[in-house]
Amino acid sequence: MTKAEEYWRTNVKLVVTCLIVWFIVSFGFGILIHDALNSIQIGGYKLGFWFAQQGSMYIFIALIFIYSVRMNKIDRKFGVEEEEGN
Amino acid sequence: MGLKAMTFLVVGLTFAIYIYIAIRARASSTSDFYVAGKGVHPVLNGMATGADWMSAASFISMAGLIAFQGYDASAYLMGWTGGYVLLAMMLAPYLRKYGKFTVPEFIGDRFYSKKARIVAVICLIVCSLTYVIGQMKGIGVAFSRFLEVPFATGLVAGMAIVFIYAVLGGMKGITYTQIAQYCVLIFAYTIPAIFIALQLTGNPIPQLGLGSTMTDGSGLYLLDKLDKVCVDLGFAAYTAQKGSTLNIFLLTMSLMIGTAGLPHVIIRFFTVPRVKDARFSAGWALVFIGILYTTAPAVGAMARLNLLHTIQTGAVGSPDGNLAYDQRPTWFKNWETTGLLKFEDKNGDGKIQYYGNNKDFAAKAESFGWKGNEMTKVDRDIMVLANPEIAKLPNWVIALVAAGGIAAALSTAAGLLLAIASAISHDLLKGVFLPDIDERQELMYSRIAMGCAILVAGYLGLNPPGFAAQVVALAFGLAASSIFPALMLGIFSKRCNNTGAICGMMAGLGTTLIYIFLYKGWFFFKATAMLPDNPAHWLLGISPGSFGAVGALFNFIVAILVSRATAPVPEHIAQMVEDIRVPIGAKAAVVDH
Lengths: 86, 593
Fold this sequence. Notes:
Chain A is mainly alpha-helical and 86 residues long. Helices cover 76% and strands 5% of the residues of chain A.
């Protein structure tokens, strides 16, 4: 495997991991099993409802920043980050 | 000062600020700043993207839909934010690395075909135009209320202002104006939410207030109280699911991939200085968008509660439990003028009965002497604008909300019209059909295109295929089914070729458009609809707005199968795909200032 292929594979792996979380919190917790989660109450929110109207959005934001930081590290590790000062 | 005067003052003042910043930004040496390749800081770019992105659908319409659909409207919240995750990870950094300016240009190059570029332009025009129809509805609502005229008159006034705004064009694309617009918008949205959250729950943070107990002494949580009030009046419980799970799932998916496929959002990531900024920029954009989107559920729930309490003043069924029509508040009268709120005294008792169509409740309602729900029309798109009035907030807050709504609708409508105009004049006419026209003629054609687009969108906006956010959802479905799969395959598959991409886009756009037109009428002329637009008649219960996800699936399948059956991509294209996958060697940002 060439270095470029390895870099791409690492990137795709990270993207897939993030998208699994993305799917679980929104489509999973917010939609598919929200009814079951609604039996858990946090404050005035039923948990399923909270994921659908609040929680999933906070996690989306966190995901993008985690991805960006990790990806920048991977760029440096493989030496493919952009040249400074362009 | 009266509300009307106050509104004119605040709207006028905010516009003066935008124009002032636009002129200042032009005069200073910002152009050198851009050309030097430094571009705009990701945080500021994120803020500007937020202003660009949040239109009448987000600002005016969405919380209204949430207020009436409760849990089911979560699809809009998750859909319109979750798309940024896809954008940040699957498109933005690579398109930034590629470094050209428009989406059709990328598709034309990657799929080495002029035809692919034309198909992409058509997809772009179809989704942008549908999007503008939604904006027109929102603009019509805002203008009719604040000029205190019927909806149609307000819409025509709005069209004229959009035309002037878009033709002048200068305000769009200047990042600092958009930052100012973002500030006005977010201020206008959150201030009333904070006031109302304080009134109802004593908690100033709307996101927390929604999960707090009421201050009315009942000791109930706000959401439980709202569920109870809804059920007591024969409506479905607020937090309960009403539609089918499949439909909510597909609507969320459509909106997510549509977000990542909308050309005017993607374009923003072409202008950040570096590939790594494209990633962070999407994150910052979502932070600024998230401030509004996490507030919206609180606005929706609290508006619904206040509305029900205004009309149902006492115990359900008690003789003096309902608001008398001649004692209705001013906001009620004003919205009646626009025709967006209608009351009909079905049982002739001079009081307003507003209740749901739950079967068990119907018998009860009859025993009270109620002859049917008397609020015969409550347009969802009026809720955000009416919300501060219903909560009896001071006039300056109400005026501020008007300014925010108008800023949101105008800036997005103008941006989309510019995108349509440049697609027609630059990509289609100059690029393909009339290569010999000079710049002046190109500009003329783009103005004609813009004028036509406003007339078409305005006409269809008079009798729109849904509430503003629903029309915009259709536009997202179209973007999801056509543009996103082509972009994604263009980056993630080296096997996808010209024929595959073209067939895929046509299959996705075609099926989605036909499905939408069957229920909404051909070209959105309602009279030509061939099937009634309700869950019983939808294929597998999939609404026209949710079909984009299915269309996208068709697009992917067709593109992959056709690519397998036809010649592989040429070597230089495979090389180009390799190249956009790594950040190294990215050129300075392309900026059209």
